[in-house]
Design a protein that fits this description.
Elements (H helix, E strand, L loop, with lengths): L1 H10 L6 E5 L3 E8 L6 E9 L4 H5 L2 H13 L7 E4 L7 E8 L6 H13 L6 E7 L9 E10 H13 L3 E5 L2 H12 L6 E7 L4 E7 L2 E8 L3 H12 L3 H11 L16 H11 L1 H21 L5 E8 L7 H9 L3 E3 L23 H9 L5
Parallel strand pairs: 1-4, 4-8, 9-12, 12-13
Antiparallel strand pairs: 1-2, 2-3, 5-7, 6-7, 9-10, 10-11
Length: about 375
C-alpha cells in the first residue's frame, strides 16, 4: 500500500533532471526515478561522439541532432538537465576558511578566493563544497572551491540550450562523484577512495560517510603508461597502446603458469617490469592519501578502493592496485548507487564510464 501510494504521488511530479556529462570521448546521460526503496535508473546512455568533442560542441546543428538521437535511444523524460563543465575549465582550490563572528560561510569563502586569485576572482563564478573533518564545529572550515571563468560558464549554458536542453544547474565534478560514492555505502563511518584514471592525469577522491573529504589531481595517466612502453620497446604510440589493451598492465606478482602457456606470460611480465616506476609513483601517492585520511579522521583508515576511468579497463589493474594498498579493490559500478534493476537497459558499450552522469542525476534540484 505504501509503495502504491508513493507511486501515485510521483505520477504528478516533474521528472528528475537528467545528469549530462560531455566527457572527453562520449556523451554520458543518466536519469533517475523514485522507487519504493530509493531512486532507480529510469534511463542511461553512453554514446561515442560522431566527431571530436570540441568540434561537436562548436556546431549547434550537429550537436542538437546528436543529443536528440541520444535522448531517443532510451526512455528519458523531459529535457531538464544537471551538468558540469569540463575539468580543464574548472579550477578546484582546497581552502582553509576562517569564519569570523558576524560573517557567513559564503562570505568567508568568497574572501579566501579573492585573496588567492586577486583580480581574476571578479571575472569568475565561484561555488564551493564543505569537506568533512573531525573539527567541523570549529571556526575554521575545510572547503573545495570550484572557480570557473564567467564567460566559460555562460558559453557552456548556451551550448546546452542550443542542444535543446534546459539546464537546471551546473554542479561541481568532485561533489557529484562524492554523492555517487555515498549512495553506494552501507557503513557511513567508513571512508572510501576512488581512483579515477584519466589520459594524462588521474584524480583521488575520498569520502567519509556521506561527505567529501579529499579530491586531488596526481601525475599518473594512461598516456604515461603508453609512452613508457613505447620508449622501452621502440614501438609507435599506437602499437604500444594496442599492446597495453591486449595484455593489460602486467601479470600479477607470483602468477604461476603451467606448461604450454606460450609467450603471453613473458609479455605480461615484461610489461609489468617496464611499468614498475609508474606504479611505484602511484603507490607513493596512495600512501600519502592514506596518511592524510588517518590524520584528518583521528586514525580511521580507508576501507575500500574503487577504480574508474581509462586504466581501470585494463587487465590485471585490480590485482595491481590491491598489491599497492592492501585493501579490497573493485571496479566502480555506478548502477550500485540505485535500487533494483534499471527501468530500461543502459544504452552503449561503456556504461561503467557513466559515473559522473550518475552523480549529477542523484543531485536532483537540491544543492549539494
Amino acid at each position: 500500500m505504501k509503495s502504491w501510494f508513493t507511486s501515485l504521488l510521483n505520477k504528478g511530479a516533474a521528472p528528475a533532471p537528467i545528469g549530462v556529462d560531455f566527457a572527453a570521448q562520449r556523451l554520458n546521460m543518466l536519469q533517475s526515478a523514485p522507487g519504493p526503496a530509493g531512486p532507480v535508473v529510469r534511463a542511461a546512455v553512453s554514446l561515442p561522439y560522431p566527431l571530436e568533442r570540441a568540434q561537436l560542441l562548436a556546431d549547434p546543428r550537429r550537436l542538437k541532432t546528436f543529443v536528440r538521437e541520444a535522448l531517443a535511444a532510451a526512455p528519458f523524460a523531459g529535457r531538464r538537465v544537471v551538468s558540469v563543465l569540463a575539468p580543464s575549465e574548472v579550477r578546484i582550490l582546497p581552502l582553509t576558511v576562517h569564519v569570523p563572528d558576524g560573517h557567513s560561510e559564503p562570505q568567508a569563502v568568497a574572501k579566501a578566493v579573492r585573496d588567492q586569485l586577486g583580480a581574476a576572482a571578479t571575472e569568475s563564478v565561484v561555488d564551493y563544497y564543505q569537506v568533512r573533518s573531525v573539527d567541523a564545529a570549529g571556526p575554521e572550515k575545510q572547503v573545495l572551491a570550484a572557480v570557473a571563468a564567467s564567460n566559460k560558464v555562460l558559453a557552456y549554458l548556451e551550448t546546452l540550450r542550443s542542444a535543446g536542453l534546459e539546464p537546471v544547474a551546473l554542479d561541481i565534478g568532485p561533489a557529484a562523484i562524492a554523492r555517487l560514492l555515498a549512495a553506494m555505502q552501507d557503513d557511513f563511518e567508513q571512508s572510501v577512495l576512488l581512483i579515477n584514471f584519466g589520459a594524462s592525469k588521474s584524480y583521488l577522491t575520498v569520502i567519509w560517510g556521506r561527505r567529501l573529504m579529499l579530491d586531488r589531481e596526481i601525475d599518473f595517466g594512461e598516456m604515461q603508461l603508453v609512452d613508457r612502453l613505447s620508449r622501452a620497446l621502440g614501438l609507435s604510440l599506437d602499437v604500444a597502446l594496442a599492446l597495453l589493451r591486449e595484455h593489460g598492465i602486467g601479470t600479477p606478482a607470483g602468477a604461476q603458469y603451467g606448461a604450454g602457456s606460450g609467450a603471453a606470460p613473458d609479455i605480461g611480465r615484461t610489461v609489468r617490469e617496464i611499468l614498475y616506476q609508474e606504479f611505484a609513483a602511484l603507490a607513493e601517492e596512495l600512501v600519502r592519501t592514506q596518511v592524510y585520511v588517518a590524520s584528518r579522521t583521528r586514525g580511521s583508515a580507508i576501507s575500500r578502493v574503487y577504480l574508474n576511468g581509462s586504466v581501470a579497463r585494463y587487465r590485471h589493474i585490480q590485482e595491481r592496485v590491491e598489491e599497492l594498498v592492501r585493501l579490497p579493490v573493485e571496479l566502480l559500478d555506478p548502477f550500485k548507487a540505485f535500487q533494483g534493476a534499471p527501468m530500461s537497459a543502459p544504452v552503449g558499450s561503456d556504461t561503467h564510464g557513466i559515473a559522473l552522469a550518475a552523480g549529477l542525476a542523484l543531485r536532483g534540484e537540491a544543492h549539494g
